[in-house]
Design a protein that fits this description.
single chain; alpha+beta; Glutaredoxin; Serine Threonine Protein Phosphatase 5, Tetratricopeptide repeat; 3 domains; 6-stranded mixed sheet; 3-stranded antiparallel sheet; 22 helices; 59% helix; globular
């Protein structure tokens, strides 16, 4: 017996229920991935806008390298900077969390993959733009890539602020040297909490006012020393003096003369408000090809979790994050990106077997996927460390070697190859030591990796190589205990050299 509605109404009801089910499903944003010479960028904005953003970043990269005379070594697929473009400042701060949760953007550097998170939008009444946030963070990335001399805190941040105001024109030209409007209040503060004797002495800031002054005064001094003809070459002399072992204040006085006179000059420079500006024409800033593609449905589904994983700020809650990953990844067993991400979080959660299974699924879909090869090796290494009789440390090294063949310029497989010997409790082979040193060359921004390389050089009696690597760490504003250790090692190296010279 048919219902009163009849077959047609039942069909309409079924279609309506199906539509409701679709509406109830969580909608995933249309995320896209832009791939260029130096960047991998994820964003849920219009693909044309994403391409324009990627072009802007590449032109900025080229402009900074050109202005500084920097080399542009080949960057492997695994060693490009990954950039997540999120909606606004609140989205940035939700990802950052912790003590610095009020930041407008952030950058994490590591041999396993450097990551930046930047907002697509900033408040319209704000002076700090989304571009300035990214350019500041990426300037740090470039600085540490080419760092062979000490960089006191004022110059680290002053250089980044100098580059933060870059203006990438519609014609492809790039202007450098604009004044940072977002630092105006600190620049014109009647009371300067960091006079030049403190600033040039390499002191890190201890208060909010000092931090603002360090950024603002750092920009002013970096700008002045860049363009003031009468001060040409003095900055390089100052840095060379520090690298040679002079205390920073003494190094500054030897390079600049009377520091009060230098401060008065920069104050006049500021009040004159006629800042020189450098424009690099588009013809000299040629960039490589940029590919933009829509990410897979699985990747879009896990993107909020993927950003948390790559940002590295939720690692203290790994089991909770892993549980969410398992649920989100379950519908996509053949998506290599999804399964690779699942393998990574499972490793952080201490689940080597499930991590390896996920890596195997990723490799089943994409046999030469670099991340999956590395994660497979890490899972095998974890099993070997746990004394699993079915695997060996040599098995893990085999996977790292395979990953290295896929991308010889990725530092992570090289670092893991070296670490596998330490995890096994045996002396690293000569090949492993060389792999570690090369990884430090490929990822010079990773201060911990620099330190490991320096210690190995020191143990081998190669003090000059060790000191070269230690100097940037010693003056890293965020160096902490590593910076303390680097300074102590430099003092030891210099002490041995002075004793030898005196004998």
């Amino acid at each position: 017996m048919e219902s009163s509605g009849g077959p047609l109404l039942r069909s309409i009801n079924i279609m309506f229920l199906a539509l409701l089910a679709l509406i109830a499903m969580p909608a995933h944003a249309e995320w896209h991935r832009a791939s260029s010479t130096h960047f991998v960028i994820y964003s849920d904005e219009d693909p044309a806008k994403l391409r324009a953003f990627a072009e802007k970043l590449e032109r900025f990269d080229k402009a900074v390298r050109t202005a500084r005379g920097m080399k542009d070594p080949k960057v492997g697929d695994g060693n490009r900077l990954t950039v997540f473009v999120v909606k606004d400042l609140s989205a940035v701060q939700e990802l950052k969390r912790g003590n610095d949760s009020g930041v407008a953007g952030f950058y994490r550097t590591r041999a396993t993959g450097s990551v930046a998170v930047v907002p697509r939008e900033t408040p319209r009444d704000g002076e700090l733009t989304a571009d300035a946030i990214f350019f500041h963070e990426y300037a740090h990335h470039l600085m540490f890539q080419d760092l062979t001399t000490p960089m006191p805190p004022w110059l680290v941040e002053g250089f980044a602020e100098f580059m933060a105001t870059a203006d990438v024109g519609k014609d492809g030209s790039v202007g450098l040297g604009g004044a940072p409007a977002h630092r105006a209040r600190a620049l014109f503060n009647v009371k300067n909490p960091m006079p030049f004797e403190v600033l040039l002495g390499g002191e890190p800031p201890h208060t909010g006012a000092e931090r603002s002054a360090l950024y603002a005064r750092g920009w002013l001094l970096a700008h002045y020393l860049t363009f003031a003809e009468r001060r040409r070459g003095q900055l390089e002399t100052y840095l060379t003096n520090i690298a040679a072992g002079q205390p920073p204040v003494a190094a500054a006085k030897a390079a600049f003369g009377d520091l009060r006179s230098l401060e008065r000059e920069t104050e006049k420079y500021l009040k004159d408000d006629k800042f020189p500006y450098l424009t690099l024409p588009a013809s000299g800033l040629q960039i490589g090809a940029i590919a933009v593609e829509r990410v897979s449905p699985g990747t879009a589904a896990i993107m909020p979790l993927l950003m948390r994983l790559k940002a590295g700020t939720d690692i203290g809650h790994t089991e909770k994050l892993a549980a969410r990953f398992r649920e989100a990844a379950a519908p996509y067993p053949s998506d290599p990106v999804v399964q690779s991400a699942l393998a990574e979080i499972e490793l952080y959660a201490g689940n080597a077997a499930t991590a390896e299974a996920a890596a195997d699924r990723a490799l089943g879909a994409h046999p030469d996927m670099l991340d999956a090869l590395i994660l497979k090796g890490r899972a095998v290494l974890a099993r070997a460390k746990a004394k699993d009789p079915h695997v060996t440390f040599a098995n893990a090294r085999g996977w790292f070697n395979r990953a290295n063949r896929v991308d010889p310029e990725d530092p992570e497989p090289l670092l893991l190859f070296y670490q596998s010997f330490r995890d096994e409790g045996v002396p690293p082979s000569a090949n492993a030591v060389q792999a570690l040193h090369y990884a430090a060359q490929l990822a010079p921004q990773d201060m911990s990796l620099r330190m490991t390389s320096a210690r190995l050089y020191l143990a081998a009696g190669q003090s000059a190589e060790a000191r070269r690597l230690l100097v940037p760490v010693a003056f890293n504003i965020h160096g902490g205990k590593l910076a303390d250790e680097a300074r102590a090692l430099i003092q030891r190296i210099d002490g041995v050299a002075q004793a030898a010279a005196a004998s």
